[in-house]
Amino acid sequence: MTDRTLVVPGGHQVACAEYGAPDGSPVLYLHGAGSNRLEGAAFDAPARAQGIRLVALDRPGRSLPLPPTASPLAYAAEVAAVADHLGIGRFVVAGQSNGGMFACAVAHALGDRVSAVVPINPTVPAGDPAVRAVLDRSGRLAYNLIRRFPGLMSRAVSGAGLKEPTGRRAAHDPDAGLWQDPLIGAVLRDVAREQTTVDYLRNELDLGIVHPWDFDHLALAQPVEFFMGERDGGLPYVRVWSEGLPDSRVHVVPGGHIAHLAPAAADELVALLAGSPAT
């Protein structure tokens, strides 16, 4: 693993960690709101075995004292600058949760430079009426409260960082057992130890849920391979989203919102990345 800070054109700093095969086929990996680039360690061994160069990026404000991302499409320009800096031409982009939204924005903005996009339990576009039609009652309630009452954002942010579930929360969390896995538990604790700011987390929720996305999530020309935990709340909408795209599939594994980190799921995800058109 190589963990470093890049300075890309325009003087922007980007925290970046590379995993897998240094000379492998490039995949740019975008973390969820409460996570960071260190999550990529969960995929290091399978990426090395599959010949994947996995480049995991922090978004502005996550680990470096920078202004947060202005919008999903604005972030796409930064991803392009990082790829240029690293000598990467065409690539696959993958992202989990809010990172899934950003991955789709990157694909939308960069066109043929992105050969495939893999949203992993992505944030769903709350402005799409289909979201309200297919999400379960608790999912609709959470989205609607945050969108209609921005004052609740601070409370939502307080629980947005990655934390080990305990007590009743652990009993109802389909991914709680991952914290007990020797490898994945260590990865999750490394992620949780790297603190971030409330402003960064508030901006992430704002971009993902409160404001309409600044790109058309149904106008993705690349193959779109959704990778979903069977108990992730967004799965019903993702099935609808996938049907509205010209070239898309939904891959479902056991678990919830961070199911992709389980060793068997991580192997399956990396195999999917290795089989994508750019690799």
From TrEMBL:
InterPro entries assigned to the protein according to its UniProt record, in alphabetical order: AB_hydrolase (IPR050471), AB_hydrolase_1 (IPR000073), AB_hydrolase_fold (IPR029058)
Residue ranges of every copy of the AB hydrolase-1 domain listed in the record: 26-261
Pfam families on file: Abhydrolase_1 (PF00561)
Gene3D superfamilies: alpha/beta hydrolase
The name this protein goes by in its record: Unannotated protein
